[in-house]
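haha ok so turns out i had the wrong file open the whole time. this is the CORRECT one, sorry everyone. sequence first:
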Amino acid sequence: MIKLGAAELRTTKSSEEEKKKIKKNPIYIILDNVMDTYNIGSIFRLADAVAAEKVILCGETETPPHTRIKKASINTTEWVEWQYFADAKTAISNLKSQISNLKVIAVEQDKRSIPYDKVNYDFPIALVVGHETNGVSKSALQMCDQIVEIPMWGVNKSLNVVVSLGIIIFEVMKRAFP
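then structure:
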């Protein structure tokens, strides 16, 4: 496995040959109208950390190349595969048609959500996160197999989208590789 430091990542260009050397985990991250470019870049960095198969950008989510995405991602956009869809519903439908037994889980506060630590996370898995204010779209939520929520004990009602995804994705990894 190729492991590069931040300084090396910022200056390297990936090649298809080098990308193929990296063993990927069957994790797909779907961004449903995530607006903040620093969040998008940080999600690429998170995807690299867990060797996710792909990041799927949907709707109004900015796509690479973009200066702020590149900066926040420390250039992991060069290493992590990504794809764009007009909306998350289409992205989920596309993934489900291509990958058998895919479990799609939204990270969202919803009346149907269950505590994130009460879920069986099995590969292959797609994790859906949404707009920083409006959350995951209703059409995408309807296509998800489950909706998970992270409990909040303070006065704030939610966490940043990257923080939420990080908690869930490392729970997935902890269960996959105990």
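The chain is about 35% helix and 20% strand.
again sry for the mixup
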